[in-house]
Amino acid sequence: CRREPGGLEGFLAHYVQCIEMNRSIYTIVRAAWPLLLESELEPILSWSSGNTSQPPRGNHCQRIKELIEKAEGLSQEEREACLTAINYLQLGFDALPDGANRFGMIFTWTMLAPPEFTNLLSVKRPEVLILLSYYALLLHYGRSMWQVGDAGVYILGLIEEYLGSERHEWLEYPRSAIMKDLE
Predict the structure, then answer these.
(1) What's the DSSP call for residue 56?
(2) pTM flag (> 0.85)
């Protein structure tokens, strides 16, 4: 919701802080998981855990997956962190037709993406920014929710502006999907 001057740099400073806060909350919840499973929250927690532990089915993220797999300069740990983040995004796209958990990954992705992914995001690694554009598309699909609104379009615009035209071909899938909805 913060839209201060500073383009992508200003946005990422706040966004990375949000991710780290969400991850801290998730760490606390994971520590208390056995106790929570004995509470009245058990059905919700088990259902949510089942949704995030299944294998991805769709191919929405195939192009970004290929980019990450071929990216030079990523350590194996960084590559695996990005692929984990991609798998969770794909689960988010897979859930879109399902009314029950249609937009759940919009809110949980920041907790589930590994810390190495966040580190790459904070240094504005181009491939990771392109990966973030896929999350912007997922946000766009949830634009009817007041918490989301036009955040997807906004984030994609920041990424496009920062990366410049030489990397726009890698942004084609999220851009075309968003533009198709806006026409």
Answers:
(1) P
(2) yes
